[in-house]
Amino acid sequence: MANDDDPCPCGGGTYGACCGRAHRSEPAATAEALMRSRYSAFALRDADHLLRTWHPDTRPDTLDLPTGRRWTRLRVLATERGGADDTEGTVEFRAHFRDRGEPGVLSERSRFERVDGAWHYVDGDVHPSQSS
């Protein structure tokens, strides 16, 4: 786990002021904030946060995170709805990584819904991407 003063993996400031709050179970205010916290959870290998914030209808029973993958940069491309007054939203992003030393990019358009007042990841459409 990261220290509060460390840079947040999502690029949004310090870990404590950014994704650290969501990782300590404070609900994300927006779909984008949840997506950023989930990216950071992948980077920090926090499977508990990922499962806790996954929509109950699509959540897997377990989650195995690849040990050879290191997440290096997040770029949010677009958000649609997902604000404080919305019940659903989408976030399109590119997540850069190195997998056993080889660079890669995951491009996804993720869907989020509120469940009992808290944002949850539903699913995403993954698209082939070129690094940028």
From TrEMBL:
Pfam families the UniProt entry points to: YchJ_M-like
InterPro entries per UniProt: NTF2-like_dom_sf, YchJ-like, YchJ-like_M
Give the transmembrane region(s).
Answer: none
- All copies of domain YchJ-like middle NTF2-like, residue ranges: 30-124
Q: Which Gene3D superfamilies match?
A: 3.10.450.50
Question: What top-level branch of life does the organism fall under?
Answer: Bacteria
Q: Which family does it belong to?
A: Belongs to the UPF0225 family.
Query: Can you say what this protein is called?
Result: UPF0225 protein Vau01_002330
